[in-house]
């Protein structure tokens, strides 16, 4: 029998125990920064230096943190599960990739990439970015922006994500508050197909918890490895 395919959605909660802040918890990023100023195209047009400083701080954090057991367990699931395991993350950090996940879509973009508004090129970027930098593809100065999906912009990879949700047998949502669409709507999308098992793994019930057939609550570094062990043990 062919193993069912799995789609996993992750959010900031999975990286919390690696040392990266979530957005909406009491000590979260949106308690300290104005979302309108640093995460909208209008905010970037108003004050690019402020937006660059915000993402530069976050980019500088990447080499100081490591994947935790939850990231590692999802990479193990992809490796050992006989069917497809597609990981869709809202996170812009690189911890899933560094843990070994390869079938991975960053629907909200990536901190380690920048995009040129003049020529459209997308390039890796390790250090700080400023309005004085030139595009390495077309040499335009001041045209680079973080390759991040801001509020009001369309998330990346949506056709591939929706097709995978349509055909999956298991949908897992990990470490996300279920408040930001379209990701918050994935569980309802899956349930309208009526077939897939839906499971939330989160520190506490998310806004969308009642939409899931099953919920497991606890820190990701504990509940995710245990859930992956169970799935793999079920293979027999
Ligand atoms: N283990 C599991 N879950 C955790 C942990 C943990 N150790 N710590 C916190 N959480 C949970 C919180 O309870 C919360 O439900 O993670 C969730 C994080 O929610 P948000 O901060 O809203 O993050 P996220 O859902 O990823 O946000 C979605 O909003 O602003 C944007 O673009 C940003 O991609 C982000 C999107």
Any overview of this molecule?
- About 35% of the residues lie in helices and about 20% in strands.
- The protein is of the alpha/beta class.
- Strands 3-2-1-7-8-9 form a six-stranded parallel sheet, sandwiched between helices. A three-stranded antiparallel sheet has the order 5-4-6.
- α7 links the parallel β2 (about 85-90) and β3.
- The two termini are about 15 Å apart.
- The mean pLDDT is about 95.
- Bound molecules: adenosine-5-diphosphoribose.
Brief characterization of the structure:
With 236 residues, this protein is α/β, with parallel strands linked by helices.
What secondary-structure arrangement, pairings included, does this model have?
Layout: E1 6-10, H1 13-16, H2 29-32, H3 35-38, H4 41-46, H5 48-61, H6 69-80, E2 85-89, H7 95-99, E3 104-106, E4 109-116, E5 122-124, E6 144-148, H8 158-167, E7 170-174, H9 186-193, E8 197-202, E9 214-217, H10 220-233
Parallel strand pairs: 1-2, 1-7, 2-3, 7-8, 8-9
Antiparallel strand pairs: 4-5, 4-6
Adenosine-5-diphosphoribose binds next to helix 1.
- The radius of gyration is 18 Å
How many beta-strand runs? 9
Helix content: 25-40%
Q: SSE string, helix = H, strand = E?
A: EHHHHHHEHEEEEHEHEEH
- Write out the strand line-up for the largest beta sheet, numbering strands in chain order: 3-2-1-7-8-9
């Amino acid at each position: 029998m062919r193993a069912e395919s799995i789609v996993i959605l992750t959010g900031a909660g999975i990286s919390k125990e690696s040392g990266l802040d979530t957005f909406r918890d009491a000590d979260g990023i949106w308690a300290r920064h104005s979302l309108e100023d640093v995460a909208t195209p209008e905010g970037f047009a108003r004050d690019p230096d402020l937006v660059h400083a915000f993402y530069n701080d976050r980019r500088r954090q990447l080499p100081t943190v490591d994947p935790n057991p939850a990231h590692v367990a999802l990479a193990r699931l992809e490796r050992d599960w006989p069917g497809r395991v597609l990981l869709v993350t809202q996170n812009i950090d690189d911890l899933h990739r560094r843990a070994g996940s390869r079938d991975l879509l960053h629907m909200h973009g990536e901190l380690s990439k920048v995009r040129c508004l003049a020529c459209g090129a997308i390039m890796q970027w390790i250090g700080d970015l400023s309005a004085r930098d030139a595009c390495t593809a077309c040499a335009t100065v001041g045209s680079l922006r973080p390759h991040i999906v801001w509020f009001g912009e369309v998330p990346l990879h949506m056709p591939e994500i929706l097709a995978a949700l349509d055909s999956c047998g298991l949908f897992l949502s990990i470490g996300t508050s279920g408040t930001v669409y379209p990701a918050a709507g994935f569980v309802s999308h899956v349930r309208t197909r009526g077939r897939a098992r839906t499971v939330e793994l989160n520190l506490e019930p998310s806004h969308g918890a009642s939409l899931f057939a099953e919920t497991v609550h606890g820190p990701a570094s504990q509940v995710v490895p245990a859930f992956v062990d169970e799935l793999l043990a079920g293979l027999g």
